[in-house]
Specification:
single chain; elongated; 31 strands; 886 residues; 35 helices; alpha/beta; binds magnesium ion; binds adenosine-5'-diphosphate
C-alpha cells in the first residue's frame, strides 16, 4: 500500500517533489534540531490521487490519525479539546513557491465548546472570536461553496449596526455576533450545522487545500511562471503557536541578507503581539530585527544563530517566517529566498568570497534574464511619484510619452507616445511599432500586447485592471489622464506613473561601455567577476550581429569575439537606393556593370570600416539576402504616381519603367520568393561585386597594417549545386586580388532542405551558420510578421507553445533540424565550423540547446552579447547544487 504521510522528522530539503517546498524545508529544520512546531506532511502524490479521483485516497485518513496522535502527544493536548485545545494549521505548499495562491487554514479545532478556552489561553478574547469566524468563512467558502458575498454581507451589516468602518474596530462581543450570523449563513446554504468535530474540520481543510491547487488564480499563476499544472500540492499539518499572546509574543519575517541589494546581514520585520499574516498585511507598523534585539535579546540571539545555520545549510540567502510565543522562538517556514537581479549577482559574488560556493556554482545562481534586467535603463525611483497603478510587467524597459488611445494616432505622432488600449489586436500593430511603450488594462503575459511587445523589444505593461479606459481618457482611482498627457511606464516592475519620470541609464551598461569602473561597486564587480568566469568556462564563442563599424565597436566593448552576421542589404539603402534601381532597370550588360561599378567603392568602404572595428577577429558577411523589389517604391505608390502624371498628359518617364519592373518582380509571397542565393544566381555580377568589395577592402586593411578576417556567407541555400556555383564564382573573383588573407566561404542553413542535405552541402562549405528565424518560419510554415500578432497569444494560452518559437528555439522541431545538420555536416567535413546568427543566439534557453548541440558559437545583437556570454558559461558548468529560488 502506498504511503502518503511523513512526519517532519522523516523528510529533508531535497524531497520537494514529494513534500513540496514548504514541507521539505520544515522537515529539514526539524532534522537540524530547530524549534519547529510538531507536524506532518501529506505528500503531493496524495493530492494528485485526490484530484484524479475526487476522493481521499484509501488509507490516507488512517495515516493522518496516527500522525496526529504523535503531535497530540508531543504537545500534551488533544486536538480541539474543550479545556486546553490543540489547534492546527493546515498549509498548502507545492514544489515551487506560489505565494498566496492556494489555501492555508489556521486554527483548525476551534468550535463552540472551546472558543472561551482559547480566549483564556491566548489572553485575547477578540482574537478567539475573530479566528472562529474566519474558520467558518474559510471552510464554508472553500469546502461547501458558500458564496463569499454571503459572509461579507453579514460582516458589513454588523459593522454598519455598530457604526465602524473596519473589522479591526469590532469588539469581541461584536465578533461573537458575527460568528452567530455566519453559522446561520452556513446553515442556510448547506442545510447543516458548522462542523463541530475537530477531526471532521481537519479532513475538510485537507481536502480544501488539495482542491485549491486548481483554483483559477493558481492555474493562471502557474501558466505565467511556467510551473507544470500536474504536480499537485502537499499539505502540511502542524500545531499552532500564538504570536498574539501579549507583548512577550509576536511574529516576523526575516532574510539572511537584504533581498533587494544583497547587502550582508539579517534583515526583517517583526510585529509584537500579532499573528503571522498581520506582518505582510501591513496593517500595523512593523519594527526591525534590531528593535527585537532590545525588547527580547534572548529570542533575537537565538533567531540570528538559527539564521546563520540555515545559510550554512542552504548555502544561499534564506527567507524565514517565525513566531515568538511567550518568549519562545518557533520557526514556521524557510526557503531559499527570492531576490532582485542585482542582489542575485551581489550574493553570488559574496558567497564565493565567503568560501561557501565555487565560482562554477556562482554561475548557476544568476541568469542571463537577470543580467538583461540589469541592462535596461530604469526610472530614477528617488524622483518618481507614487505609482498611479501597477499592472503585469510584460516587456521590460522604461518608457515615457504622451498618452494616445488609438493606433493611428500613435503611428502619426511626432512626439514619443504611450499607446493605451483596453487590449490590443493585430490592427494595432503600426501603433505598437511607433509607440515608446504599450499599456493595457486587460490580459496577462500571454496577451496579444505582451507577446508582440516582447517580440519587438517594446516596453509593455498589461492587465492594469485599475485603469478604466475610455475613448480619449482613462481614469485610475479617481484621477483622469487625458490624451496628450505624459505618463511613464515601467515594464520591469509594472508601475505606471503620471508625468515624466527621469530615466537613468543602466550602470551595468555604462560599465560595459567603459564609463564606470567596477572597483568598489559590489554589483559591477560581481558582474565583472561572473562574466570573466563564464568566458573562462564557456565552450561556445559569442559573436555579434553588426552591420556597421559603430555596432561592431560596441559589440566588441560588450565582449563579442567576432561579427557573426553582417547584413549587406543595409548598405543599399538611403542615397544608394538609386544605384540599386539603376541595377534593376539596366537593359544591357554595360548599364548593369556601370551600376555595379558605382556600388563597389561604397561597399568596399563599409567593409573596411567593419574590419577596422573588428581587427583580428572574424567578420562574417552575408551576401545580399532580401528580394530586390524591396529597394523599389511600393506598387500602390508608384501606380498612383504614374496614373497622375499620365492624367496630366505627361510622360511618366523613369517612373513608368520602374512600375514595369515592380509589376514584373511582384511576388505574392516574397519570403518564399526570389531572394538569397537565388538572387545571386539570377542577377549577373551582383554577388561578384560584393565579393570583390570584401576582398579589396581586406587587402587595403592588410596594406595599412591591419588584421582583417573576413568570411563570406551565402544565404538561403537549399541545394549543394547553388552553393557550388556561387562558390566557384566567388573563388574566381578572390583569385584576382592579391594581398588579402585567405577568406572562408560558408553558407547559412535556414531552409529545411539544407539541414536535411547538410552532408552534401558541407563538402563545399567552410562553415554553417544557422539562420534560425527563417528556419523557424519555414519549418512551421508560417511567416512571423503575419502570425505573431494574429494567434500566438491563443497558442500560448492553449499551451501549444510554451514560449514563442521566435523567442526561444523550438528544440523538438527546429532544434532537431539543427542537430541533424550539425551531425551530417561534421561527418562529411570534420573541420566544419558551426554557429547561429538568428535572434535565438541571444536567448538563454536556446543558448543552452546550442551548447549541447555542439555548435562553435552563437551570434546575437550587440546588446545581448553579455547575456549570451553568461549563458554560454552557465551551459558549460552544470553544478550539481543549482539553487532554485523560484
Ligand atoms: P503562504 O504559503 O501563503 O505563505 P503559509 O502556509 O506560510 O502561507 O501560512 C500563512 C501564515 O500563517 C504564515 O505567515 C504563518 O505565520 C501563519 N501560520 C501558519 N502555520 C502556523 C502555525 N502553526 N502557527 C502559527 N502561525 C502559523
Ligand atoms: Mg508563508
Ligand atoms: Mg534568412
Amino acid at each position: 500500500m502506498s504511503r502518503y504521510v511523513y512526519d517532519f522528522i522523516e523528510g529533508n530539503k531535497d524531497l520537494k517533489d514529494l513534500l513540496g517546498g514548504k514541507g521539505a524545508n520544515l522537515a529539514e529544520m526539524t532534522r537540524m534540531g530547530l524549534p519547529v512546531p510538531p507536524g506532518f506532511t501529506i505528500s503531493t502524490e496524495a493530492c494528485r490521487e485526490y484530484l484524479r479521483t475526487g476522493a481521499m485516497p484509501a488509507g490516507l485518513l488512517d495515516e493522518v490519525t496516527q500522525h496526529l496522535r504523535m503531535v497530540e502527544e508531543k504537545m500534551g493536548k488533544p486536538l480541539g479539546d474543550a479545556h486546553d485545545p490543540l489547534l492546527l494549521s493546515v498549509r498548502s505548499g507545492g514544489k515551487f513557491s506560489m505565494p498566496g495562491m492556494m489555501e492555508t487554514i489556521l486554527d483548525i479545532g476551534l468550535r463552540d465548546a472551546n472558543v472561551a478556552a482559547l480566549a483564556r489561553h491566548s489572553g485575547d478574547e477578540r482574537f478567539a472570536w475573530d479566528s472562529y469566524r474566519r474558520l467558518i468563512q474559510m471552510l464554508g467558502k472553500t469546502v461547501f461553496e458558500v458564496p463569499g458575498d454571503a459572509f461579507e454581507a453579514e460582516l458589513a451589516a454588523v459593522r454598519a449596526a455598530v457604526g465602524v468602518r473596519s473589522d479591526a474596530d469590532l469588539t469581541a462581543a461584536q465578533l461573537q455576533e458575527v460568528v452567530q450570523a455566519y453559522k446561520k449563513v452556513f446553515h442556510a446554504h448547506t442545510g447543516r450545522e458548522f462542523p463541530q468535530a475537530p477531526h471532521e474540520q481537519l479532513i475538510l481543510a485537507i481536502a480544501s487545500v488539495f482542491a485549491s491547487w486548481n483554483a483559477e488564480r493558481a492555474v493562471l499563476y502557474r501558466r505565467q511562471e511556467r510551473i507544470p499544472q500536474d504536480l499537485g500540492t502537499a499539505v502540511n499539518v502542524m500545531a499552532m503557536v500564538f504570536g498574539n499572546r501579549g507583548e512577550n509574543s509576536g511574529t516576523g519575517v526575516a532574510f539572511t541578507r537584504d533581498p533587494a541589494t544583497g547587502r550582508r546581514g539579517a534583515y526583517g520585520d517583526y510585529l509584537p503581539n500579532a499573528q503571522g499574516e498581520d506582518v505582510v498585511a501591513g496593517i500595523r507598523n512593523t519594527m526591525s530585527l534590531d528593535d527585537l534585539a532590545t525588547i527580547d535579546p534572548k529570542a533575537h540571539r537565538r533567531l540570528l544563530s538559527i539564521m546563520e545555520r540555515l545559510e550554512q545549510r542552504y548555502r544561499d540567502l534564506c527567507d524565514i517566517e517565525f513566531t515568538i510565543e511567550n518568549g519562545k522562538l518557533w520557526m514556521l517556514q524557510t526557503r531559499v529566498g527570492k531576490r532582485t537581479p542585482a542582489a542575485a549577482f551581489v550574493i553570488a559574488g559574496q558567497l564565493v568570497d565567503e568560501g561557501t560556493i565555487t565560482l562554477d556554482e556562482a554561475l548557476q545562481r544568476v541568469t542571463g534574464e537577470q543580467l538583461a534586467h540589469l541592462m535596461f535603463p530604469s526610472f530614477d525611483t528617488a524622483a518618481a511619484p507614487a505609482p498611479l497603478a501597477t499592472g503585469v510587467p510584460a516587456s521590460p524597459g522604461a518608457a515615457v510619452g504622451a498618452v494616445v488611445f488609438d493606433s493611428a494616432a500613435a503611428a502619426a505622432a511626432t512626439q514619443p507616445v504611450i499607446l493605451v488600449r483596453r487590449e490590443t489586436n493585430p490592427d494595432d500593430l503600426p501603433g505598437m511599432i511607433a509607440a515608446q511603450g504599450i499599456l493595457t488594462s486587460r490580459g496577462g503575459k500571454t496577451s496579444h500586447a505582451a507577446v508582440v511587445a516582447r517580440g519587438m523589444g517594446r516596453t509593455c505593461v498589461c492587465g492594469a485592471e485599475d485603469l478604466e479606459i475610455g475613448p480619449d481618457s482613462f481614469t485610475v482611482r479617481g484621477q483622469v489622464i487625458h490624451a496628450g498627457d505624459v505618463i511613464s511606464v515601467d515594464g520591469t516592475t509594472g508601475h505606471i506613473f503620471a508625468g515624466s519620470v527621469p530615466v537613468r541609464p543602466s550602470p551595468v551598461v555604462r560599465y560595459f561601455e567603459g564609463e564606470l569602473s567596477p572597483m568598489g561597486d559590489p554589483l559591477l564587480s560581481a558582474v565583472q567577476r561572473l562574466l570573466a568566469h563564464a568566458d573562462h568556462t564557456a565552450r561556445l564563442g559569442v559573436h555579434a550581429n553588426a552591420d556597421t563599424g559603430l555596432d561592431a565597436e560596441r559589440a566588441r566593448r560588450f565582449g563579442a569575439t567576432g561579427v557573426g552576421l553582417c547584413r549587406t542589404e543595409h548598405m543599399f539603402l538611403g542615397d544608394r537606393r538609386v544605384l540599386v534601381e539603376r541595377l534593376i532597370l539596366a537593359t544591357d550588360d554595360a548599364e548593369r556593370e556601370a551600376a555595379l561599378a558605382a556600388l563597389l567603392p561604397l561597399q568596399r568602404a563599409d567593409f573596411a570600416e567593419l574590419f577596422t572595428a573588428m581587427d583580428g577577429l572574424p567578420v562574417t558577411i552575408r551576401l545580399i539576402d532580401p528580394p530586390l523589389h524591396e529597394f523599389l517604391p511600393p506598387l500602390e505608390e508608384l501606380t498612383a504616381r504614374v496614373a497622375r502624371t499620365e492624367a496630366l498628359g505627361a510622360d511618366p518617364g523613369r517612373d513608368g519603367a520602374l512600375l514595369t519592373a515592380v509589376r514584373r518582380m511582384h511576388e505574392s509571397n516574397p519570403m518564399l520568393g526570389l531572394r538569397g542565393v537565388r538572387l545571386g544566381l539570377v542577377v549577373p555580377g551582383l554577388f561578384a561585386m560584393q565579393v570583390r568589395a570584401i576582398v579589396e577592402a581586406a587587402a587595403t586593411r592588410v596594406a595599412a597594417g591591419g588584421d582583417p578576417r573576413p568570411e563570406i556567407m551565402i544565404p538561403l541555400v537549399g541545394a549543394v549545386q547553388e552553393l557550388e556555383t556561387v562558390r566557384a564564382e566567388a573563388e574566381s573573383v578572390l583569385a584576382t586580388v592579391t594581398g588579402a588573407p585567405p577568406i572562408r566561404i560558408g553558407t547559412m542553413i535556414e531552409v529545411p532542405r539544407a539541414a536535411l542535405t547538410a552532408g552534401e552541402i558541407a563538402e563545399h562549405a567552410d562553415f554553417f551558420s544557422f539562420g534560425t528565424n527563417d528556419l523557424t518560419q519555414m519549418t512551421w510554415g508560417f511567416s512571423r510578421d503575419d502570425v505573431e500578432g494574429a494567434f500566438f497569444g491563443r497558442y500560448l494560452e492553449l499551451g501549444i507553445f510554451a514560449a514563442s518559437p521566435f523567442e526561444t528555439l523550438d528544440t523538438r522541431g527546429v532544434g532537431e533540424l539543427v542537430r541533424t545538420a550539425v551531425d551530417r555536416g561534421r561527418a562529411a567535413h570534420p573541420g566544419l565550423i558551426t554557429g547561429v546568427c538568428g535572434e535565438h543566439g541571444g536567448d538563454p534557453a536556446s543558448i543552452h540547446f546550442f551548447h549541447h548541440a555542439g555548435l562553435d558559437y552563437v551570434s546575437c545583437s550587440p546588446f545581448r552579447v553579455p547575456i549570451a556570454r553568461l549563458e554560454a558559461g552557465r551551459a558549460a558548468t552544470t553544478a550539481a547544487t543549482a539553487s532554485d529560488s523560484r
